[in-house]
UniProtKB/TrEMBL annotation:
Free-text function comment from the UniProt entry: Plays an important role in innate and adaptive immunity by regulating nucleotide-sensing Toll-like receptor (TLR) signaling. Required for the transport of a subset of TLRs (including TLR3, TLR7 and TLR9) from the endoplasmic reticulum to endolysosomes where they can engage pathogen nucleotides and activate signaling cascades. May play a role in autoreactive B-cells removal.
Species: Castor canadensis (American beaver)
PANTHER family, per the entry: PROTEIN UNC-93 HOMOLOG B1
Protein name according to UniProt: Protein unc-93 homolog B1
Localization terms from the record: Cytoplasmic vesicle, Phagosome; Endoplasmic reticulum membrane; Endosome; Lysosome
Membrane topology: Multi-pass membrane protein
Amino acid sequence: MEAEPPLYPVAGAAGPQGDEDGFGAPDGPDAPLDELVGAYPNYNEEEEERRYYRRKRLGVLKNVLAASAGGTLTYGVYLGLLQMQLILHYDETYREVKYGNMGLPDIDSKMLTGINATPIAALLYTPVLIRFFGTKWMMFLAVGVYALFVSTNYWERYYTLVPSAVALGLAIVPLWASLGNYITRMAQKYYEYSHYKEQDEHGPQQRPPRGSHAPYLLVFQVIFYSFFHLSFACAQLPMIYFLNSYLYDLNHTLYNVQSCGTESHGILNGFNKTVLRTLPRSRNLIVVESVLMAVAFLAMLLVLGLCGAAYRPTEEIDLRSVGWGNIFQLPFKHVRDFRLRHLVPFFIYSGFEVLFACTGLALGYGVCSVGLERLAYLLIAYGLGASAASILGLLGLWLPRSVPLVAGAGLHLLLTLSLFFWAPAPRVLQHSWILYVAAALWGVGSALNKTGLSTLLGILYEDKERQDFIFTIYHWWQAVAIFAVYLGSSLPMKAKLVVLMVTLVAAAVSYLWMEQKLRQGVAPRQPRIPRPQHKVRGYRYLEEDNSDESDAEGERPGGRGDCAEEAPPAGPCPGPEPAGPCRRPCPYEQAQGGDGPEEQ
């Protein structure tokens, strides 16, 4: 009886059907190796590459949304807690019953001074902190400081409130500088992942065209500020759902108020010292503060878990390796750039207008005339107006970039002139709709101002080596302006409005002058960013095709692109250093070299 053939052919032996399989390919030991270990036959490299970069783009969008939501929750908690805390501490009965002779007004004054005065020193340490920790980790640590400030309100004492307020003031400018830098870097990454084929054609060292990431930057800034301005509305939730039920009505709180609006002096002159009908129970306060603490912790988790890194690890190494002394000096050296000097009035006005919305408009016009119980709704109108109007920033995709900024400035100028001649009567509700419209329109101008300035800085300064310095300067001037408003809080309302109008006109004129200079081809004078000096020369810095060098480094004469062919082999090199343009200069020569070719 003839044996049946095996179910599976024996490896390495020809089957009874012959030396070829059913597809005509040789079988057994003569089979080609590619058939066994080759690529998957249906593998489409172009399709896989497209899917890979699509995932990268979705990751960038996730980073932007997470950073925006984290900033919104952080400031919503901070502003809501601070507002509720100041109202409770203002009430005489609450202070005497809860804290006796502890001196709560003095503690609140020192706390506000710590929050507003400490950022003045931020220009000295912010770039160093961002380069040391990295952009993402600086955001996370700063959000953690805001959460620390929330936690200290469980035990309100001098040694908890004042130190946490000083720490919060130290974190304000680093948080905003790292957020601005982060959104700008995400726009640049999104452009790279969207145009990866062009990057492959031109090579990894070829920089993209100037301004190529501007549309993505504009969209990302609109997303960020649409989220962020919602924090003003979210901050009013503790007032609406908790504190408003304990407040007296306007007939009690405004009984001694004689003048409002442009006729007023200081902040709420004549306001009643008792604003609470009944004192909130300590248990209820702890529940509200616990909810705020949970939201602050959620903001930390959003930044930590969902925000990706702004730079590759080797880029972070290069950014730190320029030297800590240079990192400390470079923000001051950038002052020689005429573009920044022309934008300083706008930076200052940006700080003036946001604090005027929260104090001058909301308190001097709103609370002074329609009562404290409507403060939350005024600020909600401002926040929602600003959030919705941030979408108007997309007009920059079709209009010149100066249009949103100038439009916002013009709207604020009209509102300021109108407020200068308006003094609403106290305890009269017939004109309350005017206040809501004014708050919403002020929010529209604020949104155009914030999105326009942040987008403009990201377009003018594309080099990743400069962005943290530029956003530090921007938000430092903002902090200086806010501190000036804090110092001048007792001035008459007319004086505040005059200062606001003068600053606004000066900012608009200075900005338009800058744009005129750029159209005339005036070259800005930028300080040179030193080459990274790596103490440990790893393998990645010995390759001829150094993918980790900075963007500006590849363009300089004498860089790796010019000297790749003349580079000596790795390893010890006996004898003197070679002469010529490709020799690495010693530190003394670098110090004597001035500020480089960019200033000539």
